[in-house]
């Protein structure tokens, strides 16, 4: 008969990349205390990654050795698991839009949930709680613009909107207009003026 360790590894290896694994997913294999101890042991030995308290993922084997799951897949899976929004921070958004050449050294994402530190092997990701208006239009260009402008701040709002709005599609502009109602006035008012003349 296979050991609990072997059965948990089999379960983990059968899951798609970046699937969160929790003790409650494994109670069909053993009692909670034994499952918890085995998950901890597997994380210490490197056979599973402890992403954060109570959440594990399997490392991915490559020809160069083991790596953590792809960050985008892992964050999408955690969004679903926790029913939270997780989006790139404003500095990354501003860089992506060409509004700054600065690259962030730390991997920081904004979330509707609590602050957390996630570990994907050697890679560390910080989740920082953000106000709901900064999380508007997740995974959309309009949301990227909102986060970039928020990061650049009120003194840069006019210049950043002038640089980015001409590059957006009609759909993006419509989504930005719809999001104005949740934005602070320092962002909503200059955006409204530009879109009214667009």
Describe the structure.
This protein is an alpha+beta fold and 198 residues long. The protein has two domains: 4-67, Arc Repressor Mutant, subunit A, CATH 1.10.10; 84-198, no CATH class. A hairpin with a 2-residue loop joins strand 1 and strand 2. Strands 5-6-8-7 form a four-stranded mixed beta sheet. Strands 1-2 form a two-stranded antiparallel ribbon. Strands 3-4 form a two-stranded antiparallel ribbon. The relative contact order is 0.10. It has eight helices and eight strands.
Helix and strand topology:
Blueprint: H1 4-14, H2 32-44, E1 49-52, E2 55-57, E3 60-62, E4 65-67, H3 71-82, E5 86-88, H4 90-96, E6 107-111, E7 116-120, E8 123-129, H5 141-152, H6 157-164, H7 170-179, H8 185-196
Parallel strand pairs: 6-8
Antiparallel strand pairs: 1-2, 3-4, 5-6, 7-8
Helix pairs in contact: 4-5, 5-6, 5-7, 6-8
């Amino acid at each position: 008969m296979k050991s609990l360790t072997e059965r948990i590894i089999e379960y983990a290896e059968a899951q798609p990349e970046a699937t969160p694994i929790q003790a409650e997913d494994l109670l069909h294999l053993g009692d909670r205390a034994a499952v918890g101890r085995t998950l901890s042991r597997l994380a210490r030995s490197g056979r599973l990654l402890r992403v954060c308290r109570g959440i594990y993922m399997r490392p991915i084997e490559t020809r160069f050795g083991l790596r953590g799951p792809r960050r985008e897949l892992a964050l999408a899976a955690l969004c679903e698991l926790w029913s939270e929004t997780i989006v790139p921070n404003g500095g990354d958004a501003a860089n992506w839009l060409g509004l700054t050449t600065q690259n962030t050294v730390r991997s920081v994402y904004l979330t509707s949930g609590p602050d957390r530190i996630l570990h994907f092997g050697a890679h560390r990701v910080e989740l920082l709680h953000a106000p709901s208006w900064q999380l508007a239009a997740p995974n959309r260009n309009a949301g990227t613009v909102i986060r970039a402008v928020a990061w650049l701040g009120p003194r840069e709002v006019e210049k950043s909107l002038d640089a980015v709005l001409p590059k957006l599609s009609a759909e993006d502009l419509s989504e930005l207009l719809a999001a104005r109602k949740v934005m602070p006035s320092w962002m909503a008012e200059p955006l409204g003026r530009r879109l009214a003349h667009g």
